[in-house]
Amino acid sequence: MMIVTGGAGFIGSCLVSALKARGETVVVVDRLRDQGKWRNLARHPPDRLIAPDQLPGFLATMPPVRAIFHMGAISSTTARDGDHVWRTNVDLSETLLDWCADHGVPFFYASSAATYGGADRPELFSDAPELLPDLRPLNLYGWSKHVFDQHLLAREKAGRPMPPHWAGLKFFNVYGPNEYHKGGMISVVKVKYDEVMSGAPARLFRSDRPGLADGAQARDFIWVGDLIGIMLWLLEHPEVSGIFNCGTGAARSYLDLAHAVCDAAGVPRRVSFVDMPEALRGQYQSYTCADMSRLRAAGYDRPFTTLEDGIARYVHDYLSTPDPYL
Fold this sequence. Notes:
The protein is an alpha/beta fold. 33% of the residues lie in helices and 15% in strands. The protein is globular.
């Protein structure tokens, strides 16, 4: 069986869909709560759903696990409860890493581009292990992911037991279906689509960086299907382990994104600018761009979906349909 923590969430449920399509037995570790997350699993229900606090007991039964995909985390960039974030994003990850090392099970986990903090040039987004100590995340979420990345590499360097196959995945800005429960952490693509379909212009933050034009803030936006493709490729290549960036290798501006949403929705291009919220000032990444050279060197050679094509697919196949779920 495959275990997917956070399997009812955005990326986790898309991964569950892909694994079920391959005929895998899938155990999801998550809470459905009352946010409509069950809809993320409606078309590809897991073989078993386990609450996170039940996971240790389940693992103690020695189930026949082929791999663990640890997608579950507190992923809000505005999270403030440091103890809760540490328990969830660091302690739980350590527990699963230990179990996989002890039982010879492959382990794949979600890291984040938030670990790069205020990096603002392409050369600062290298995932080379020797550069990891130099990273300075801007928020608690990014720091917690950075801590676990460091713990894992320190463990490997010290020669302590490791899973036979493992990968840390530094997700950049992911968009696509099944993200609708995420509230304030939903992708900019979905937010802009809702704005323009209501008849309003697409609203973007004014720049808070001197010399950077409004709307010129740029991110590496990746279609969720491409991200799932990377994870499945890693699963199939046990000779490849490491911490890898998961982006497209191209930074695109928010203005490009807004225009692509308008074009896909079939409405005129209209954009307005608003002041950045005080809570985001000083913590906002105005530029991200994944250096994909290490994953490419490891053998991953599939093309990435362009921003325009990904947004068009999202709008036409999901957002504009009566049932927008994968």
